[in-house]
Amino acid sequence: MSDINKVVLAYSGGLDTSVIAKWLQQTYDCEVVTFTADIGQGEEVEPARLKAEAMGITEIYIEDLREEFVRDYVNPMFRANALYEGEYLLGTSIARPLIAKRLVKIAAETNADAISHGATGKGNDQVRFELGAYALSPGIKVIAPWRTWDLNSRDKLLTYCAQNNISVEKKLGTKSPYSMDANLLHISYEGDVLEDPGTEPEENMWLWSVSPEAAPDVATYIELEYERGDIVAIDGEKMSPATVLAKLNRVGGANGIGRADIVENRYVGMKARGCYETPGGTIMLKGHRAMESMTLDRELAHLKDELMPRYATLIYNGYWFSPERIALQTLIDESQRFVNGKVRLKLYKGNVVVVGRESQDSLFDEAVATFEDDAGAYNQGDAEGFIKLNALRLRIAAQKGRV
User: pTM of the prediction?
Assistant: First the structure.
């Protein structure tokens, strides 16, 4: 292990990564550099600096990446209307490539020999971190302690902390807490009672939203303004990408929007049950599809819908930096040139309802669509030939007795 002299660790300041920092020092007799990303997880990140310093770490990176996260990762993903397995808005998945990108860049800046992360050997995040790192730095070395050490329980981690004078906040005894991951797009919950798919989540588990039953009895109306598929203003007020998402999280959570309870197929092969709160993302998806319904050509919209599951799976599995995802993104971004305008939404007790949309780039033509006199804008008689031509193969098959 003498070839490892310095490691850059993705460091949250929590129990797992604090143990990993000390474990790396002891196991590899190496210098540790910590990298803590503020991607809107809602917790103070500066305390991570004090914990790192207490372990003798001198190179400490703490970065506010909220705007970059939403602008360069969340927004491009929502232009595709991405949903994994029809339900998951990919809140954890989309944060990993940004963290991987910064890890390898810091490794280059500090002349580190390797990077390290706190993802377990059972989950998707190990794949996402490492695929991202290898895509950007093919020769990078990765240390994943959870795949090699024997500290495989909370009790063992706490014992290790006591033996090595590592401070631990919020000790919860022997009962495993929820495993949570948060960023500006969502918060996820796994473990504890959720490991039984038949058990309803406890109400006090949810942190970002009120229950639909407890949401206000009066609907909230909001207006989203779009430019090239991205929200640029709410109720007429121009906002940065991160500010938009933070605002939608607040108003969505207050109206009981964005909860999901999913059994999903992990890339490593197992099924896992997770609960998610994505209030802002739920609103974004509804609004974006409404805007596209006005402005996208039919076949282009249908092509996007056909490609979306593949695109979503690429992100879920960790292939953000793959050539196929980049190629798909080019098509998706081109499709958004005319996705401009405004969408009006009603938020009520967990529901997001589209109540209005307008666009200078709309393809909706009232003169053609009307049920009233269309003044010759559409010749209804043309439909007869259209139907007969499309029925030709069906009629031939029927004549041959194939139906």
Answer: 0.94
